[in-house]
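ok, trying the design again with the full structure, not the truncated one.
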């Protein structure tokens, strides 16, 4: 199956580079380009892509507001934020707005393509390198307060605990399946049950829960 992608970035060179790179991969198809958030929102309405690769800082409507409008609408389009490490606060805003994850612009191009495939497949992706700041922001208290006794969570199985640990480490459903020697469909089922049992809105909240339970420790 081919993933249909819209590239939203105000830098033509970035869009051009990704488009040329994706042209060599038949499972990825660029179906539109946008230089502003408003253009990205309109393109989603016009062509219903599977994924929007969204820059945050764009003139007029930024990527955060565009993400909010896209994910609040009827389309099933998912948003992958493409950003830089110095834009953490904006990244968190995009995740709260409904983005399925983010990657950074200095990642290897093959890793960016892999991230697009992960998000197109219905998974979420959080770059491991910013997990510490992500958790601190979402939990909403100083870093020192996170170093507390783990809170217990009842009602999940041992297998679900293993899956939650891997989610907390930023692993995708495909990677979880490989690590636990199960199918991707089974991994997705476990994640879905965890979302329901733990009352989590999305995968980002599962990451936070994994840290709060002490399943994953904050990197030093």
């Amino acid at each position: 199956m081919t993933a249909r992608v819209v590239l939203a970035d105000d830098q033509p060179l970035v869009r051009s580079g990704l488009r040329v790179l994706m042209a060599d991969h038949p499972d990825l198809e660029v179906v539109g380009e946008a230089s502003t958030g408003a253009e990205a929102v309109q393109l989603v309405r016009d062509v219903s892509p599977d994924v929007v690769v969204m820059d945050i800082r764009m003139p007029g409507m930024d990527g955060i507001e565009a993400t909010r409008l896209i994910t609040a609408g009827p389309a099933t389009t998912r948003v992958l934020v493409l950003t830089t490490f110095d834009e953490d606060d904006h990244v968190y805003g995009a995740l709260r707005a409904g983005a399925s994850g983010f990657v950074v612009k200095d990642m290897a191009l093959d890793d960016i393509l892999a991230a697009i495939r992960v998000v197109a497949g219905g998974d979420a992706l959080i770059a491991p390198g910013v997990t510490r700041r992500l958790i601190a922001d979402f939990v909403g208290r100083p870093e020192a307060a996170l170093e507390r006794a783990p809170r217990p969570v009842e009602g999940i199985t041992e297998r679900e605990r293993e899956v939650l640990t891997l989610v907390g480490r930023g692993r995708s459903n495909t990677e979880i399946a490989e690590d636990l020697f199960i199918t991707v469909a089974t991994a997705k089922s476990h994640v879905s049950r965890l979302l329901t049992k733990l009352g989590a809105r999305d995968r980002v909240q599962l990451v936070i829960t994994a840290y709060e339970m002490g399943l994953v420790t904050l990197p030093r």
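Keeping the full-length input from now on. The radius of gyration is 17 Å.
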